[in-house]
Protein 1
Amino acid sequence: MELMLKNKWIIFLFIAPALLIYTVVLFIPVLETIVTSFYEWNMFSVDKKFIGLNNFIMLFTRDSVFITSIKNTFLLMLMSVITQMPVAIILASILSTGVFGKKIFKTFYFVPNILSGAAIGLMWYFMYNSEFGLVNSFLKLIGLGSITRPWLGDENTVLWAIILVACWQFVGYHMILFLSAIEGIPDSVNESAIIDGAGRWRILWSITIPLIKPIIYVDAIMISTNSLKIFDLVYTLTAGQGGPNHASSVMALHMFTHAFRNYRFGYSSSSACVLLISCLIVTLLVNKIFKSESYT
Amino acid sequence: MNLNALKRKIPFNLANVIMYTVLILFAAFCIFPLLWTLVSSLKNNHEIFESPWGLPAVPQFINYWNAWVVGNIGRYFFNSAYIVTTAVIVSLIASSMAAYAIRRMIWKLSKHVMMFFLLGVMIPVHATLIPLYRLFNSADMVGSPVCLIIIYTAVSLPMSIFILGGFFKMLPRELEEAAVIDGYSVYRIFWEIIIPLSKPAIATVTIFNFIGFWNELLFALVFMSNVNYMTLPVGLTNFIGRYHTDYTGMLAAIMLSFVPSLLIYIFLHENIIKGIMSGSLKE
């Protein structure tokens, strides 16, 4: 049997398809993107010109849309963490106390997460419609009719409108993660805390949260890297334009626009590189924040 | 455990009121947009403006017909189904074979190859978009569903191999030993023993891949922009920005695109939620 399991040909045969597809489609293109970012390359021309760091310099000094995109992307990431994680943790902790209807709530909260970003974006596009949309109708209903406005058409509100939709789409997912983590805490811990006279908030803050730190760490990485990559919602909510005057453009959209609308492959590759580097930096940062705490 | 919850009476105190209010409010926040879209999709274009909160006088099912035929949603549906199903199957075959080789076969580089695959989880796929476009463009394949099938498969490989590998690792060695004594070849062991035993992991991987592929936008937008071959998400983006006034038709299109995901969710939500929860425990 040993010989059979060590048979090099069979191993190769089993590994080959996955390895080939993965390397050619994922691994090598990333390297290519990095290389291409140092060139000036129009999609239609055969020759490309090596221009070193020029693309990057242009990105950061001449391209105001890019600066806006970076700003928006990081703002979105920050706001996603701030709006999604605490809500998810609170909901999960409430659900973990064995409330009535837990399964139904769980099911409802997770529904937005299985829908496509495109469909969600289109749906909220209509919900934000200033005449018949649900958002403005709701505001009028509760007496806040004075603050109704074209949420997606106003430079100042469009990014926040998108942040709300992202919250809608993803909180359920984080909640499920935290719920499983919280339910992994043994009952005895909570019981002794109650015996010691701790109230609910105290338990949540001083016991539950520290105990689920590993999951918070994983979730933080997930939220940050996923929000850096956000595209679907922004594209569909802003009709591919990135908002009025590009006010809500994000990095992925910037790359997409310059690659497939302006046909500048070199330039958009450098945009993609910045995205890549941002993901790395953010992951390292989150690592630093979490791992710097020593476990006694 | 739940029966006890039903039997005991819920004390009517401030804490409970607050808790349930929070839960219910958020549930409403999650569900209401979907309800609104559903109800609005059955109105006609006047009722949408005149009675945003009311129910339609007569449910306009014709909106759905319009979306399916005139709005081409039916065709996009078929395109998505074809591409996604094929990609899920190809991914399943490639990843299960690779996971088996890595976890059950004995060779020196197995751990390194696993790490190599896991690196893929960290790669933002956006960084591969442009070179891939060049690659498929030079082969004149842009616009062919094969592009997306290959790309989706590749993107799903790291996670799939990880999940399947984790499952394979836990299967007892005795399986292979007994099979060898009975004269099984590796191929037979793989297909007739390992795979049938791995149904839970295969189910998880299949569901997640299906949902992920079905909902994908960026690559589909780039590679399938031909009106006849678009996938569903791309088809939906056609509705924006252009001068369209059939709002109810577009709302019906949105509801239609929700259907497959919702169906999968209704029947398989236990699996989905279990899959995520077990994934978090592994971390």
Protein 2
Amino acid sequence: MRFFSFHLMPYPGLPSDYDGPAWITCPNEFFDPRLGGELYNRYIDELLYAEELGFDGVCVNEHHQNAYGIMPSPNLIASVLARQTERVRIAVVGNALPLYDPPTRVAEEFAMIDCISGGRLIAGMVVGGGPEYYSFSLNPAHARERFAEAHDLILKVWTEPGPFEFTGKHYKLRYVNSWPRPIQQPHPEIWIPGVGSLETLEFVAKHRYAYMGIPYFHISAFERMFAMMRDACEKEGYVADPLQLGWLVPIFVGETDAEARRHYEEHFWYFVRRLLPGINISPPGYTSVRSAENIMKNAGTFALNLQTWEQVVEGQYAIVGSPQTVTEMLAANIERLGVGNLLGLFQLGTLSAADTRRNLELFATEVMPGLRAAFPGTQLPGTSMPAAAAAPS
Amino acid sequence: MTALSAGTIDTEVGSIEVHRAGRDGPAPLVYLHSAQGEGPGMALLEELADTRQVVAPLFPGFGASEGLAQIDDIEDAAFHLLDVLDQLGFPECDLVGSSLGGWMAAELSVRWPQRVRRMVLVNPVGLYVEGAPITEIFGRAPSALADELFADREYPIAQLMRAMDGMEADPSQIPFELVRPILQSQAATAKVGWNPYLHDPKLRGRLGRITAPTLVVHARKDGIVPRAHAEAYASAIPDAKVADLDDAAHLAALERPAEVGKLVVEHLGS
């Protein structure tokens, strides 16, 4: 079992009278650069603190032109983390490959982070969220093709000697010859996040990568998603390893259940009601029709539709409570979902620096040890997973 | 009113759904639909088919037409339509195009002007006009779009679009059979029109190559394409003029068959 601290780097300062979407068209006059500077530094501190507390890794991700996560370049943050940490895995989950043209840029920057960190990068690759295709005016009907081709190119950059010529449909490069190359050989561990698109699951299974279930759905949606992932691996002729599955979930630990909810609830609602609106826009052609049908089955349980705290608890949209409650709920779900990576969001919405630190401390001291004992080290599967990816548990 | 019958033709990109009716004549009328994918059962076409041959192919991604994977941009669309005319066996035809179909008709005409005898463009997209942007159609609430597409709030499709808004809270309740064709046709529209947004920067400079006398119809209640676009087409095409429709919106070809039909017949002859 590996434990990661995931940071979205949300913007907590939306005006109280603004009720529009947090994405694409959310006016950037709301972004206060001074506050932004404080937030970046504070959020980096929170990620650094996770190493001190014994987490196995930290996660950052990429979103553009929104208040939900002010991290358009996760690689900038990851390079700071690479320099300032010594032990944790640094998971960039991920780079939205179709947004990089040419995508050799991703191969280069990831290799830099891997070098600076001494081989601790986890290379996440994503198609990019629906809103990104509006924010970049990038054709969503080409999203999957570009992703697949960019992926192939990046893997080739890392595993074949340069220079070589690459001639794809979307990228035509005469001289591909990345300096630097990654420390981890043949390449860094690769994670792919997703919301249950069949194409993505099949892609991950085929390459024996790890699949990270994206949060904000009812727990039953995760159950279906991971079952589909195991099926996809079986169709490829092998049994999915728990380390190929990751569950991303907001977590808040308090002294007691009541105290935890009292501290946390308003921040959770800021996140759901202020930062999520607009995230679920699905531009035309972004998913195949058969995947769209599958995703629509889960859409009714998306967190945006939540009205009451009872629904949050029932669907386990966030794991909130005393150390004992959180341990029990997480253990039950780790078992039920069969995942080997727990990606916790310990800061959410407007949750303060002090509350976030206390949350991380309580989790690390009173929850993580019990879970480590309950789910002892898991071996890495397959042959394509590099040995360097082994969890330092 | 002459009902159109459905069939298919084989093209380079795959099987294409075609609706056709009417007597053979020297210049058949080929109708190119908007992003709405109209054609089957369309009153305008049934009226026109009383006096001439009418053929309405559905673009890849619409109806049962295959081959969207092989269409990447408006250039591919133009070559696909040339292929359609070849497969139909039309050395020359009259073109009527609505919105997206108007753009495609213009792209075809600038490349192969000899294939087009006369042409009608109804609220065509396809050009960039400074200061007169085309309204966003992607990612909009159906109810908001309905008012821009249709002049009459009671028009059945407009009512259906307004009803769809309420379903957004729980999309799992929408029958997927209803959603599938919409998703496919939107993907097809995005393929050719996402960026540059519903236009081809090269088109305007090529419009001078069109030889077909062209009528550009502008509906005054069109909430998608400003009149400046009709003027831009008409000023760049050598033999062209603009006709205005008062009580009509963007999908005039669908909603106002009598008025649009009259203009088409006047311009093309019968």
